[in-house]
Specification:
The protein is of the alpha/beta class.
């Protein structure tokens, strides 16, 4: 069944949510939290971290990178200062790439993103997650379909709304399981690990305002796509062919055993969060 998550920021206006209701009724398994936008700290980030830690809900921070504001290095360093030491059983810091380029060309904007990525990777030892969308990447007013081989190692988190903004929240795993996979920006082939499938959804259990709803790409034997390559790059001794066969299953089981997880060979939330902390072997899909 689908693994459901949400991502939120102070701008959503939720105050203190009822996390227990979100878990029990909304099937909540993980949360993305805006930590910093530009160099401004999100006012609810620290509070949400404490609340989620108290309930044992996995969460990860994201930096909304803003073009033509200070420098990408300053924004990345600010985010790293704010988040401190991350729980390496949860996903690392994500880099949010979207919106108006604010006078930068696409080439300059890609350079900004790459420079921020380098700072984060140097600090964490692994590439960040990257949040964007295929629509934004191929848009002449976005990334203008630029190649980005240095970013292709980043764990992919794509925006692909399958309901209109501000629609009633959908969170039943059986329904979410039937959604189409998100199309990836070209540098990532068809790879995805997280999918933001609705934006500013209303009525999510435990929340008085809006949330963005997400799901995890749970992978298992028989799958065949670029998402499998994301796993294979992070495990030793595997051919990076995108085919989740018996050898990949055994490698996942070995990894799970080493990290005291249930060795079922299925790459679910616990396994993929840990894999995101393994430096990948190559940089192309």
């Amino acid at each position: 069944m689908a693994t459901i998550g949400i991502d939120i920021a102070s701008v959503d206006g939720n105050g203190t949510p009822d996390w227990g209701k979100a878990q029990s009724e909304g099937h909540l398994r993980f949360v993305g939290l805006r930590a910093v936008y530009g160099t401004t700290v999100d006012t609810w980030y620290a509070t949400y971290v404490n609340q989620l830690d108290a309930r044992g809900i996995p969460h990860f921070p994201y930096l909304l990178l803003i073009p033509n504001l200070d420098t990408p290095e300053a924004q990345a360093h600010k985010a790293l200062d704010v988040i401190g030491t991350l729980n390496n059983h949860y996903f690392p810091l994500a880099l949010d790439v979207e919106g108006d380029r604010r006078g930068l060309t696409a080439v300059q904007w890609l350079d900004w993103v790459t420079r921020a990525k380098r700072v984060i990777e140097a600090a964490l030892g692994v590439p960040p997650l990257i949040y964007s969308s295929r629509v934004y990447w191929i848009d002449p007013d976005g990334m203008n379909n630029l190649p980005a081989p240095e970013l292709a190692d980043c764990t992919p988190w794509w925006k692909y709304y399958q309901w209109a903004t501000r629609s009633p929240a959908v969170y039943e795993p059986a329904v979410v399981d039937k959604l189409s996979p998100p199309p990836a920006p070209p540098p990532w082939g068809n790879s995805w690990i997280l999918d933001q499938f609705a934006g500013d959804a209303v009525g999510y259990p435990g929340f008085k305002s809006t949330v963005d709803t997400d799901r995890l790409n749970v992978q298992k034997q028989g799958d065949s796509n670029d998402s499998v390559k994301w796993i294979q790059r992070r495990l030793p001794g595997l051919t990076i062919d995108g085919a989740f066969g018996p050898k990949t299953t055994e490698a996942v089981k070995t990894f799970q055993t080493a990290h005291k997880l249930t060795a079922d060979g299925i790459a679910g939330l616990d396994t993929e969060q840990l894999l995101a902390w393994v430096k990948p072997r190559t940089s192309s899909p």
